[in-house]
Design a protein that fits this description.
about 280 residues, alpha+beta, seven-stranded antiparallel β-sheet, 5 helices
Length: about 280
């Protein structure tokens, strides 16, 4: 299943570098395909040119406790052309249509949607960011306040490799300083700032600050009963030889030295995923 999950991620990226010795090897991959996909605001709303809007993950229940996100995690959702066309062809963006259906028309096998999870990084100074190592792994979700490690992101690169103490979720953790280039990232522009400030609860975010990709949830119909896959950023990447990356191809996103780790959800196989990278609506 992990092999299939990574193959789907690769399919969402551009082809391997033909100059690579074996056609894939350490080829550089970039998620450029989904950069051209339609945001959910456009697919499910009335705005034909709507831009992706950052949103805060919804609270989720873990046992008797309702967990709410306390860190500045935010997400957006994109539909590939096949999924977008299917929603429009069957008028699935309207509640009245859905209420009248006995069953939702089956999506085509090549339909893919992605939920991209972002973390804001200030252009100046260091930004603490939690890292999930797979423990604890609770079936109801793993609040990022329980994660045991962190890194500090330095856009200037001046302090990369240093070990410092950072404050995160009321805890002081030792953190290795990593470069902004360790992540897929982009600069925040004027159009994104309002929703980024609201979703992250950080009014100090300014034009020129960054968002880094910390997780991607990929949903695909390439298997008949759908597959939901969660990939998340890890400072060791696939080179960690973790069981979670045992079936990963040898690739990185863009020029970044780290690649996502994957766990897959299907109807018959459910594994824990970091709760900060999912909301109850994703189940």
């Amino acid at each position: 299943m992990r092999g299939f999950a990574f193959a789907v991620l690769v399919a969402c990226a551009r082809p391997p570098d033909p100059a690579a010795p074996d056609g894939h090897g350490d080829a550089q991959w970039q998620p450029e395909a989904w950069a051209h996909w339609a945001p959910s605001e456009r697919v499910l709303g009335a705005a034909p040119v709507a831009m992706p809007r950052f949103r805060t993950p919804r609270p989720f229940r873990r046992g008797d406790v309702v967990e709410s996100e306390t860190l500045p995690v935010m997400f957006d959702v994109l539909f590939d052309p096949s999924a977008e066309a299917h929603v429009r062809a069957h008028d699935l963006a309207h509640r009245a249509t859905l209420a009248a259906l006995r069953a939702v028309p089956a999506f085509p096998a090549d339909a893919v949607t992605v939920k991209l999870v972002w973390y804001p990084i200030h252009a100046r100074g260091l930004t603490a960011l939690p890292v999930w190592d797979g423990e604890p792994a609770w079936p109801d979700g793993n609040p990022d306040r329980t994660w045991q490690r962190a890194v500090a992101v330095d856009p200037s690169g001046a302090r990369v490799g240093q070990i410092i103490d950072v404050e995160l979720s009321g805890r002081t953790l030792p953190a290795r300083v990593v470069a902004l280039a360790s992540f897929e990232h982009h600069v925040l522009g004027d159009a994104e700032l309002p929703s980024a400030r609201t979703a992250s609860r950080d009014p100090s975010l300014a034009r020129g600050d960054y968002v880094v990709l910390v997780a991607a949830h990929v949903s695909t119909k390439r298997q008949p009963d759908w597959t939901w896959t969660t990939f998340w950023w890890h400072d060791a990447g696939y080179r960690s030889c973790s069981v979670l990356t045992a079936d990963a191809p040898c690739f990185t996103l863009g020029s970044k030295p780290n690649s996502p780790t994957a766990r897959a959800r299907t109807a018959s196989h459910v594994t824990a995923a970091p709760s900060s990278a999912r909301a109850t609506s994703c189940r």
